[in-house]
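Give me structure tokens for this 358-residue protein.
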Amino acid sequence: MNQVELEQGAVQTRKTLMLQAPREAYLQEETLTPLKPDQVLIRSLLSTFKHGTEMSAYHGSSPFLKKRLEPEWRVFLENRKDVQHHFYPRPLGNMTVGVVEQLGSEVRSLAVGDTVFGWLPVADWHVSFANKLQPLDALTPTEALCIDPASFALGGVLDGNVHFHGKVLITGLGAIGLLAIQYCKLSGAIVYATSSFPLRSRLAREYGAEIVLDTRQVDDLGLTIKQLTGGGVDVALECSGSYAQLHQAIRATRQGGRVVCVGFYSGGATELNLGEEFFHNRLTLLASLPAVSWNNSVRGDPPLYAQDLQQLVIEDLKAKRLKVDGLLYPTYPFSESVKAVETISSRPAEVIKVVIKY
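Here you go.
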């Protein structure tokens, strides 16, 4: 599809990857609205997904299907029967790199031809407010696509108060877990990591983990980590969103240590018993969710919010303190976006952070 002039009234359509219902993804064609004075038209180049959160929507296990987080009191409440709450349909994908093709009449911060990135779903075209986009500048497109998971990884490391020479366990080696390894190493920590996926285990070693355990070959992960470390890790960063992995992370942590939940949990916790190691070893269990939408800061002084973390990540990427080599894999053409989502769901061992190329 070639560049068009929206302001002249030409009809411009786009295709967006949507989720109609659990496991029902499709490409929806829709008409783009004309540009407002402070908006720009973006032609997409690359997009990525937010695997953990979006898979809970894809599998139909998200708590937001039946409940809502009440904003004033910040408690989950059952959806009112007399009010419609539309969880589906919803777009999939959360970050896009693209090229500016048109400017609204009041836009001065960007120019036609600029390569930009923003928190946008999988779609071949976007109409976006200019202040929601950032120029690529010294970043590569792949680095820009990793800002979101890296900011959550950094938030987890800061929430866990990871120290120099501290022993850290990272469970769940998706993009967040693999980037957390690097931030732990930058803090001078000794990193242990676990996965049953060979592709992710290899990257964990390349990113600096001292020991990577294959969970398929370890009968008792918590006990094994305790034995390897001489008593347990100081901090466990649980990045998988799996209750079974959280249970093992708790078991692997030393007496008085900290367990930080970075992954997104959904469904019931049948594998978790807080009356065992958690209670008797007096552990601290923390949640880390420095997301823009929930207005959470990380612990510490001064408090850092999502945009603060994102800026720190951008600086680290520009200075090459963080690597993203091998992190974005595999790549699917936009026409196979539905297949990409199905692969994330059914064959997670074959993916790390899936990329859509237009």
